[in-house]
Structure formats: C-alpha cells, structure tokens
Design brief:
heterodimer, A: about 110 residues, mainly alpha, disordered C terminus, B: about 325 residues, about 70% helix, about 0% strand, globular
C-alpha cells in the first residue's frame, strides 16, 4: 500500500458517501453538498492517476493536473448556478424541499430588498 | 516512508470522518461548515500527492469561494431547512447504502487494479516545454497544448454567470447583486477589509505571475483577487456595480474574445488553430492570461454574489 493507492481508495469511499448523502438528505442544499462530495471524490481519484503518472522529473502527469484545475473551476460554476436556482425557488414559494409528501411549512420567503 | 504512510492514513481517516459528518449532521449550517473544513483537508491531500497547482486551486476555489457561496445560501435558507426534519424511510436508506457501497467497492477494485507502470504524458509534455517558453508544465498544458479546454472553461464560467443573472426578478433586471451581511462599519470585519486587500492583491498578482514557471496561475490568482473584492463588499465598504454596466460586460467578454482572436490568428501565423508562431508563444500566452484575468476575477466574484437583488440608487 502506498500513498496514491491509499488516497484512491479514500476517493472511492468519498464517492460512496456523497452518493448516499445525495439520495438520503431531503434538503436541496444538502443534495448540492452531497453532489460536491461526489465531485471531489472523482477529482481525487483522477489526482491519484495523475500522481501515478509521475515521470520526467515531474511530481505528476501534468495533463490530468490541468484537467483537474479546469474541473474544479467548472464544478464551482455549476454549484453557483445550482445555488442561484435554489434561492430563486425559495423566493418564489418560500418552501424548499424535495420530500414527496411535503408538509406545509410556515417558513415564508424573505422579501427581496427593494 | 512508514512515517509518511502513517501521516497519509491519518489524513485519509480524517477526511472520511469529515465527509461522513458533513452528510450525517442534522443542521444544514453545520454541514456547510463541515464541507469547508473538508475542502481544506482535501488541499492537504493534494499537497501529499505532490500536485501543488491543484492544491492551490482547491484551497482557493473548493474551500474558499464554494464555502462563501454555501454559507450565504445556508444563512438565507436557514428557516426552511430547519422545518425539513423527516428523512426517507429505512427501506430507501438501506437501498441507498447498498448502492453507495457497491459503487465504492467497484471503484476500489479499479483502483487496486490500475495498470502498472501507469500510462503518462509527462515525458511528452517535458519534451516540448522549451518551445512554449513557460517553465510550469501544467501552465503549458492549460495554455499551449490544450488551450482549447481553457477557452471553453472560461466560456463555461461566463455562461454560468449569465444563467445566474437571468434568475433575477423582473424588477431587478440589470440591477446590483448584493451580499447579505450585517457588517458594523467600525467592527473587526471592516478593519480587516481595509488591512487585508493590499496584501491580498499582491499575493494574488504574484500567484498569477509566478504560474508561468512555478505552481500558481491565473485561476488561483483570480480567485484570491475575487475574494479580496468580496471581502471589501461583505464588510459594507463598497457595493457591486449594476450588472447592466457596459464596462463590466466588456471586461467579462474581453478575455475569451482575446483568447479566440489569438487562437484563430494561429491559422494564418502558425498554420493551425490555437497554434503559436515560433518564438512568440510566451508573449501570446501572457497576452491571453492578462486578458483573462479581469474576466475571471469579475465572473468568480459575481457568481458568489448571485442574481441582482436591488436597483442602483438613482
């Protein structure tokens, strides 16, 4: 067992944790967090592959590293869009839940500042 | 070696515990804080994997900006999140656990059976590094070997921003985004927002500039500059401009447009799209990076800010 293999197994476990959170947590914001944990697990898995490709005096294969940087930036952009959609939904209805038999809730939307 | 492995095992256990807590904890706000901590621990993993460019991106983007975004959202959604108590039944949870465990087991099997020796493009990247004029192979991949990816990435960031803007209420169309803060203009946050930006701007520009030869680059530098802007606005010392401002929109599209212009000019000057003529690679890469910098700073900060929420004061 060496470092990259260890973190590769860690990444596999993180993807599993994220998937469980994505399915089980009813709140959309928690689903976004679960999805981000899946994403970071995928990145870590790819990172161990970059590390295993260390050669030519480099600490890791530079092509996966560049793709990882691209991936992290794109993941942030997608998360920002998801959060904006969620907040707009909250402004519209005041209820944000994906539970099928959603119980009526007293929470009301914060009126947007005029 | 055994000590290094012990550190790695400790780090892996810590990060798994943090991820499990982030998913299992009841309070959404606590979960968000857990996720930020998790992002910082992940940065240490990238350092342990000897991938410093990724570590810098993860620290700035995964922990920092995503954290700011999620904390803002969790604060606004706090009341509705608290009312959602019920979780799916035991059957659904068992099924989800079985599915997740199966995915983990399959991926673990793949990790343990990766080809040996591992395939690598590092020798090829090293061989042509001299012709690009940059010393950091990751920057060479981002801006010379696979510059199309980087162009499309910048465009994805912009499209996400347009998506966020299009979610504004009709009456705030083209207005100002807003951070919801309760800052005291004499408080410690306002003090930091005056002291930190000069240092942060130097660090951000340094990380941008050093990226040509050492770990760093425009994405990491732009994130730090965006964070400084958000800090000043979050402390109530400045406000976001209306998103309908012409200068803002010009700066946002200038980066990708310069990138495309230089890329397509390669057809004439170097015989291929996104090729650089001999001897001009370094200045052209620098021109692209300098043009992309304001685009990324503005786009990343405005993505955290969200949809416009008020009209500019007349």
């Amino acid at each position: 067992m060496n470092g990259p293999t260890l973190f590769g197994l860690c990444a596999a476990a993180l993807i599993g944790f994220g998937l469980y959170g994505l399915i089980v947590n009813p709140q959309p914001l928690r689903k976004i967090i679960g999805f981000n944990i899946i994403g970071s697990g995928v990145f870590l898995l790819f990172g161990t592959i970059a590390r295993r490709g260390a050669a030519a005096g480099m600490g890791g294969d530079p092509v996966p590293q560049a793709l990882l940087i691209t991936g992290i930036v794109v993941a942030f952009s997608a998360t920002a869009l998801a959060v904006a959609l969620l907040l707009r939904l909250f402004d519209e209805g005041g209820v944000v839940t994906l539970v099928s038999e959603a119980s009526p809730t007293e929470a009301k939307a914060d009126p947007p500042d005029a | 070696m055994t000590l290094a492995l012990a550190v790695d095992i400790g780090l892996a256990l810590l990060i798994l515990a943090m991820a499990a807590w982030t998913i299992a904890v009841r309070d959404t706000f606590a979960s968000v804080i857990g996720f930020v901590t998790y992002g910082l621990l992940l940065t240490l993993v990238w350092v342990r994997l000897a991938l410093p460019d990724v570590a810098l991106t993860e620290a700035a983007m995964g922990g920092g900006l995503t954290g700011a975004l999620l904390i803002g959202a969790a604060a606004r959604l706090r009341r509705t999140e608290a009312t959602v108590r019920e979780r799916p039944g035991v059957f659904t949870r068992t099924l989800a656990a079985v599915l997740s465990a199966t995915v983990t087991a399959a991926l673990s099997f793949c990790v343990l059976n990766l080809p040996d020796p591992a395939p690598t493009l590092a020798p090829g990247a090293a061989a042509k590094l001299g012709s690009t004029g940059v010393g950091n192979p990751v920057t060479a991949v981002l801006l010379a070997y696979r510059s199309m990816d980087t162009l499309l990435e910048a465009i994805v960031v912009l499209i996400a921003l347009f998506g966020v803007w299009s979610l504004a209420h009709d009456r705030f169309w083209g207005g100002c985004p807003q951070l919801r803060t309760h800052a005291d203009s004499e408080g410690i946050l306002a003090y930091f927002a005056r002291i930190l930006p000069p240092i942060g701007i130097i660090v951000g520009v340094y990380i941008f500039w050093i990226g040509a030869d050492f770990p760093g680059g425009k994405f990491q530098g732009a994130t730090i500059l965006a964070a400084m802007w958000l800090l000043v606005i979050g402390a109530g010392l400045a406000h976001f401009p209306p998103v309908s401002q012409a200068w803002l929109r010009i700066l946002l599209v200038a980066g990708p447009l310069v990138f495309m212009a230089i890329g397509f000019a390669g057809i004439v000057t170097a015989g291929a799209v996104f090729a650089y003529p001999d001897g001009f690679a370094k200045p052209l890469i620098l021109a692209i990076e300098i043009a992309l910098m304001p685009t990324l700073v503005l786009a990343l900060a405005l993505l955290v800010a969200g949809a416009p929420q008020r009209m500019p004061p007349q």
